[in-house]
């Protein structure tokens, strides 16, 4: 790029060095590929970087009993509810985070409770506020359960590509003297929250000289 008229020829010191570097790089790449797959994860954990296994979505629901103004009614933690999206033909299961209890002293026959999706993933992030759920167990005088908020917060497990991209950015930013374009880019991206997009141009490189 810097010397467009140069052509490699046998015997040139530049050609000899390039071949030596290529051989050493190939040997190193082969050695790295033989390292157990769990080793990089353990090493990255030493730098505080842990792979995300995903998060379960959460929501709040309103539960109503018909006679809670006379008798105490409750549902144990772990009680399952089912929501069926009839349009998409998909069902979603949720469980109570904590025990739900209504007493005769409660201000109404309805109380709020937190639920969590039974599975990890972003597929549970649904706009179901106001939709009804089905109780999957017997409970006397149970009347209804309705979403009082959207279901949100669910994330998928991190892929290898996403995880190692974060690892590359993290490790490349560990330098007190950023000297290469890549180091500057990773450092700014990791440490300057106001910079949502970063690009660095190295005008010593032929392809970066025209930055218009």
- Looking across the biggest beta sheet, what order are the strands in? 1-6-4-3-7-8
The residue-averaged pLDDT reads 87
- Total strands: the figure is 8
Task: Say what oligomer this is.
Answer: single chain
Helix content: 25-40%
Radius of gyration: 29 Å
Low-pLDDT runs of 5+ residues are: none
Shape estimate: elongated
Into which percentage range does the β-strand content fall? 15-25%
Distance between the termini: 19 Å
SSE pattern, N- to C-terminal: HHEEEEEEEEHH
Helix segment count? 4
The structural class is: alpha+beta
- Note the main sheet: 6 strands, antiparallel, barrel
Task: Give a short summary of the structure.
The protein is an alpha+beta fold and 212 residues long.
Give a topology summary.
Elements: H1 13-33, H2 38-45, E1 56-65, E2 73-75, E3 80-85, E4 90-96, E5 100-102, E6 110-120, E7 132-135, E8 142-147, H3 160-172, H4 181-191
Antiparallel strand pairs: 1-6, 1-8, 2-5, 3-4, 3-7, 4-6, 7-8
Tell me what you see in this structure.
- With 212 residues, the chain is an alpha+beta fold.
- Helices cover 25% and strands 24% of the residues.
- The chain contains 4 helices and 8 strands.
- The strands form 2 sheets. A 6-stranded antiparallel beta barrel has the order 1-6-4-3-7-8. A two-stranded antiparallel ribbon has the order 2-5.
- The model has no long low-confidence stretch (mean pLDDT 87).
């Amino acid at each position: 790029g810097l010397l467009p008229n140069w052509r490699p020829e046998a015997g040139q010191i530049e050609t000899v060095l390039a071949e030596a570097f290529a051989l050493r790089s190939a040997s190193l790449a082969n050695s790295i590929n033989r390292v157990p797959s769990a080793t990089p994860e353990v090493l990255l954990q030493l730098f505080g970087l842990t792979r995300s296994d995903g998060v379960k979505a959460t929501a709040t629901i309103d539960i109503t009993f018909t006679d809670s103004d006379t008798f105490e009614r409750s549902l144990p933690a772990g009680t399952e509810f089912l929501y069926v999206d009839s349009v998409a033909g998909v069902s979603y299961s949720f469980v109570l985070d904590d025990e739900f209890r209504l007493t005769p002293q409660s201000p109404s026959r309805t109380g709020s409770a937190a639920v969590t999706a039974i599975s990890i993933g972003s597929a549970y992030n649904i706009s179901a506020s106001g939709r009804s759920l089905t109780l999957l167990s017997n409970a006397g005088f149970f009347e209804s359960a309705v979403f009082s908020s959207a279901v949100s917060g669910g994330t998928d497990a991190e892929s290898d590509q996403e995880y190692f991209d974060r690892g590359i950015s993290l490790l490349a930013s560990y330098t007190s003297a950023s000297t290469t374009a890549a180091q500057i880019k990773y450092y700014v991206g990791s440490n300057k929250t106001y910079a949502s997009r970063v690009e660095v141009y190295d005008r010593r490189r032929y392809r970066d000289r025209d930055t218009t």
